[in-house]
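request received
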Amino acid sequence: MADDPYTTLGVARDADADAIRKAYRTLARKHHPDLNPGDKAAEERFKAVSAANDLLSDKDKRARYDRGEIDETGQERHQPRGPGPGEQGRQRRYRDYAESDAGRRYGAAGAGAGAAGWGEEDLGDIFGEFFRHGGGAASGPARGRDETYALDVAFVDTIAGATRRLTLPDGRTLDVRIPPGIEDGTTLRLRGRGGAGREGGPDGDALIEIRVLPHALFRRVGRDVHLDLPVTLKEAVLGSKVPVPTPSGTVSLSVPPDSDTGRQLRLRGKGVAAHGGHPAGDLYVTLRLHVGAVDDSLRDFLRGWTPPAGVDPRADLEGAA
Amino acid sequence: MITIETLCVEVRGLARDDVERWIERSWVRPHGGSGRYEFGDIDVARVRLILELREELRVNEEALPVVLSLLDQLYEERRRLRRVRDLLDQAGPEQRAALLRLIEDARE
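response:
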């Protein structure tokens, strides 16, 4: 730690402030202790780099160091050494907490979600397996371990159902049948597709955790699918046939005359496919009035037009405000 | 446990807006809901880390979720590893020796 700060940062003695900042950042990124949790020496290197930067990025301190008035820790020469700038106030770092149980709040699976991959039980399973193999009799039949995988499924695949191929880390592939209507977070169990059994023992299972990717247009509510459909003023007032995307392709929908924004139309059977005794769900289309580009003829018409008396779209807001 | 006000005083250079945005993005997950957040030691350390990544290491907020996600995965693996280590510590010498034999076997 008592190295020359120029050497520590790897810069020339006449380096300008920019070069020093750049060198510091490069080294700090590399040695930041929280980015190198297993590496005890990283903290020392990071402190040295920070201390060197503290000294060289401060014009006065740097000048005093260059004149030999202070040493590389920022202390007056010939004075008993106290704690240097890199040593004082040992603050506990993120890594000091993150590896303890407290760190589970910041699990990789995100807030609130159960961790994908293996949980405590799986760990117990695996070690159970280890020790069953290892506990004295290192041979004998044993069931293969269960393996857990995560599979991202496109929204439309959860509507019609699908078969998806999962490539495992060891190169094997698994064909996973996605039943229609599967919910996000469901775990599918493929019997006998996990770890190989030992000496005639049965193979373990593959546990597939399904993550349903959200769709830009469609939302699922139970077995029904919802969609917001923009319509023009003309289509809403006069009625029209408009193309509507559904999970199974585009269909033509009749918008009745005198429709208003928020009106819900139902396309029967266009929701989750019939499956396992459940009838097919429906697609609910909610009209959203889209005014869009306006030309002079519409403007002129509206200026000369008096809405029917007694129509107040904000009538419901009165008492509520 | 400290409040968001105390946190912003304790961590130099920290703006309340930043913390609230980080909470919204789930980068920081204090106890309690909006308006009555309580930050534990790990949350404070994490706030310091995010601030340090952004200010000192110039990781911008667009890249931060990538960095945090990788870090979270790294620490999750390390927690699991620690748990494995603890379990091994609890196991008897015979079982450890058996495990060692298994590892030796696997290397061949």
